[in-house]
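Subject: for your reference before the review

Hello V.,

The reviewers asked for a structural picture of the protein, and I figured it would be easier to keep everything in one thread rather than splitting it across files. Below is the amino acid sequence we used in the manuscript, unchanged from the supplementary table.
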Amino acid sequence: MRGLERLSAVKRSTPAMAEALPDLPMPETVMVRLIRATVAGMGQYFEPVFRAIGLSENSFHVLCLLVATDSGRAAPSELAELVGISRANMTRILDTLESDGLVSRAIEERDARRHAIQITDAGRAMAAAAVPRVAEPLTRAFAGLAPEEFAQLDALLRKAVKSFDQPALPLRASA
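And here is what came back from the structure prediction:
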């Protein structure tokens, strides 16, 4: 489904949803639906770019994060948090990157229960080679926004991310 079709589906289904569920806050519900449509569209937009490179978007993100560290090393849990995926998904991604020779795993000296992920020379080369192939599609993805709109979207998304730090449900009172 393309962006215009997603927007049309949201517009078409919202009145019926509002009528069927009158206590559901519609502006917030529509916002969630728009954000989900954005994420889905972004995934479809970038998928062929990363497929041509031989990486997933998340794998590329992991390599970029590792290249950006002074040591080229990070914990799997830290990478999962920074990429915004579950630890189970990060394990799968790291397994693939390791089998491709782009990262290696080492047991932490201070705690043998923990692993550290280290980018390899091949991983650094892959990340560097991917950048020119990702740069233009990345820029083009936001070309419809004026610079001030882009800055405003950045600020609003950062504000929304912070708003999710509040618990969705009230904490139970201690007994």
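For the response letter, the relevant points are probably these. The longest helix spans residues 26-53. The chain has seven helices and three strands.

Happy to draft the paragraph if you're swamped.

O.
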